[in-house]
Structures are given as C-alpha cells and as structure tokens.
Amino acid sequence: MRTTTLLRSSSAGLMLVFLAAYVLLLLSEPITMGTVPGYGPSVLGNASYTIPFAAAACAASGAWESARLRRGNILGQAPSRGRLAIALPLLVPVWAMGVAGMLIAVGVAVSAAGTLPSFSHLGMFVVYALLMAAATLAGYLLGGRLPQLAAAPLAMVAGFCLTAFPGSWDTPWPRHLVAGAYDSCCSVGSVIDPMAVWAPLLFAGGIVTACLLAIARSSLWKPVTVLVAASVASGFLVVHMDYDPVLDRNPDALVCDSAGVPEVCLWPETPERARIAATTRTYSGRLKDAGLPVPSSLTQNRVLRPGQAGFGGRGQVREQDITVNLANTLLPPIPTCARISHRYPAFPARGPLTAWLTGIATHAPPAPVPGRVSPDDARLAGMVLTLPSDRQRAWYDTNRAALTGCDRKPTLNPEGAGR
Questions:
Q1: Which residue ranges traverse the bilayer (predicted)?
Q2: What distance in Å separates the CA atoms of residue 58 and residue 45, rounded to the nearest whole number?
Q3: Helix axes 51-72 and 123-143, enclosed angle (nearest 10)
Q4: Can you tell me the distance from the alpha carbon of 144 to that of 91, in angstroms, rounded to the nearest whole number?
C-alpha cells in the first residue's frame, strides 16, 4: 500500500484532530499553570497531563485498525506477509499520532516556560513515546479479540483508565510505572529521579515486546514471560519511591550574591535576583536592628550549611514572600513531640509571631497572609507593635519559647507577656 493511501485511510489522522483540539482547548491551562518560567525540566513534566488522553486515542485507533483487518478477513486469506509485516504499517501512523499529541503538549508548556526542554530530561519524552507504542499495540490486540463495534470504545476506556487511575491510588509505586506523577517535575529546586525514567521505560518496553510476540503468534509463554519479568523488574525500581518522583537539584547551579549580608543564593531561573537580594538584605537589616538573630546566608537549596537558612520550599522566591520566609527562619520548627502526640498548645502563637516579625521587617502594619497569618493574628501583632520595644521583645521571647515544646501554652495577650 502506498504511504499516501495508508495515511489517508488511517484512523490516526482524524483522531489527531480531536486529540490536538483537546490538548489546546482543555489541557492548556493545567499544563501552563505548573510550568516554571525559564526552567526546562518543568516543560516535559507538565506535558504529562496529556498521557491518559493520548494513550486512550492510541489504544482506540489501534483497536480500530485491528477491527478493519478482521472485517476484511485479511489475516484469514493466507497472506504472503507475516502478521507483524501486515500490522506494523497500520500501527506506525497511530503511534505517530500519539507522539504528535505529546509534542503539542510540550509546545504548550514551552510557550509558558519561554525555554526549550532540558536535554538532561529528554528521557521523559522517550517514556512518553514508548507508552504511546504500548497503548497502540495493546489496543491492536484488544481489537482482534473484542466485538468489532465495541473494540475501539472499550480500548479507549482501557487506555485511559490504565494510565490515569494509578495516580489516584494510595500506594505510590504503580503510578511511576506509567509516568503518572511526572506532573510533580519539576519545581525550580528539583530534577526528575532517574529511577522514575528507567521504570516506565522497562515497563512499557515489556508491554511492547510482549505485544509484538503475541501479534507474531509466538508461543504463549514468551509474551507472558516478558510481561511478567518487565513488570517485576520495573516495580522493583520504584517500590520504595514516594509520591513525587523528584530529587533535589545540584546546588552547584545556585547563583550566590555575596555583595552584602546576608549572602543570598538563588537558582538562576529566579526572576529579578538582584532585587530579591536587595530586599532580603533590607528586611534582614531591620530585624537585626531589632536585636533578632539573622542568618549569615539564605539559600534556595534544601541542604543547609551551618549558619545558613533556607527560603523554604522548592518553588520560586517571590518578593512578596520574603518577609514570611525570613520570619520562618527565626521561628522554631514544629517539634517532634507534636508530630507524635498531635498535641501542640503553643501553635496558635505562630501566626501572631509571624505577623509581628513581618511588621518589624517592613516597617508597616502587619497584613494577613493566606495560610500563614489570619486577620486576627495581624491585628494582635499590630497591637504589640505599639508597645515599648522591651515589652515587644519580651512578648516575642515568651511565645517563641513556648513553640519549642509541647507542654506550654502561649501568652498572646500583649498586656500579660513580659510582666
């Protein structure tokens, strides 16, 4: 069959139109929302939202092509070519359709990030391509065994469920076999875990090999053995992996500004690094003038050196969050006893103390911060800021000390602390 005839008669062309429309119209928002501007690994990670839909399209088209062969009784007419030689020319356009759908998703992410995918993470796209091949071949096998009218719809449902549902299970490792958590990759401070690339490559490669053996009518034990071996081996690679398949980024990539105190180390993709460093030093200087211990260095790296504090989290540092980040460096972490006993009576002091520290840093009335400082916390901190400096410091020291353990209640009333 001529290539032009093959492409014109394939179901992949029409399916690609629907897949592209779905990606551009319905998936572009979730893809772009999680993409980090300027950070290449996040481009490939957020394109993974398309996997279940592209896999469903590949499985449905593969089943449709198989059903066409059954209707024409092609395989029952003693053809001169083998079964693989007949099937593969029909399935290559289907696989290409799925890969094209993933490329469209990558293009959407590239437009949001303003950068191309990172070369070090291109293995993620190889995973996408191999998953599309696995869905195509599995759909073809289903189409040869299911009722003809139901083959494509049932294969579509199966392709979607088998790639989308593992991500919702409480057990984390099955999702990593189908790249079901790639959307966690990558914030600016993280990279993909290599095991999260090798596991789906091995798993999808096992499915592809088993399907090819089944199409060629090899002995049943061969595809079954390949599928079981690939499943066990790939599961072994990720059985202990957490929900997010990422690792901390190499700290050598940090750009450190040592022109003042504190030293400020940020990832190179951070926008307005000089402005953030200057703002951090301004706020730190005001906290230091108030007699508070300010760290000598602030970094986005999660592994800290002695005397160094972190900005918190793996995401971008924003100027509006600097005061809260600095406040967190001065407040004690949640103690172990609170995590074990679930009892932490001093916790209500954390919001007012954060608000008071931000007020000191900004020289402005404290404002509510969603999830950190409530309006009541901000009002209380504003009252404390009207007191003499020694009374303020006594209020802060008393309540900060309560946060270090699980047996003390806070003294939030500014008239009662320090007297």
A1: 12-31, 43-64, 84-110, 122-142, 149-169, 197-216, 223-241
A2: 21
A3: 30
A4: 13
> What whole-number distance in Å separates Cα of residue 396 and Cα of residue 356?
8
Low-confidence ranges of the chain (pLDDT < 50): 418-419
pLDDT of res. 79: 62
* pLDDT at residue 124 in the model: 96
Return d(Cα 419, Cα 405) in angstroms, integer. 22
Beginning with the edge strand found earlier in the chain, give each strand of the sheet holding 255-257 in spatial order.
255-257, 263-266, 297-299, 308-310
**SS3 track for the chain:** CCHHHHHHHCCHHHHHHHHHHHHHHHHHHHHHHCCCCCCHHHHHHHHHHHHHHHHHHHHHHHHHHHHHHHHHCCCCCCCCCCHHHHHHHHHHHHHHHHHHHHHHHHHHHHHHHCCCCCHHHCHHHHHHHHHHHHHHHHHHHHHCCCCHHHHHHHHHHHHHHHHHHHHHCCCCHHHHHCCCCHHHCCCCCEEECCHHHHHHHHHHHHHHHHHHHHHCCCCCHHHHHHHHHHHHHHHHHHCCCCCCCEEECCHHHCEEECCCCCEEEECCCCCCHHHHHHHHHHHHHHHHHCCCCCCCEEECCCCCCCCEEECCCCCCCCHHHHHHHHHHHHCCCCCHHHHHHCCCCCHHHHHHHHHHHHHHHHCCCCCCECCCECHHHHHHHHHHCCCCHHHHHHHHHHHHHHHCCCCCCCCCCCCCCCC
Q: Are 357 and 287 in contact (CB under 8 A)?
A: yes
38 phi and psi angles, rounded to 5 deg: 85, 0
Give φ, ψ of 375 to 5 degrees. -55, -35
Q: What is the pLDDT of residue 87?
A: 85
Q: Residue 16: its pLDDT value, please?
A: 92
Return d(Cα 356, Cα 320) in angstroms, integer.
16
Burial of 313 (0-12, 13-18, 19+ CB in 10 A): middle
Q: What is d(CA 294, CA 284) in angstroms, rounded to the nearest whole number?
A: 6
Alpha-carbon distance of 386 to 404, in angstroms, equals 26
Name 309's bridge partners. Answer: 298
pLDDT in tens, 305-356: 887 888 876 677 888 888 888 998 899 988 898 888 889 999 999 999 999 9
Q: Which two tokens stand for residue 407?
A: 């047996």
Considering only CA atoms, which of 302, 230, 231 is closest in space to residue 265? 302
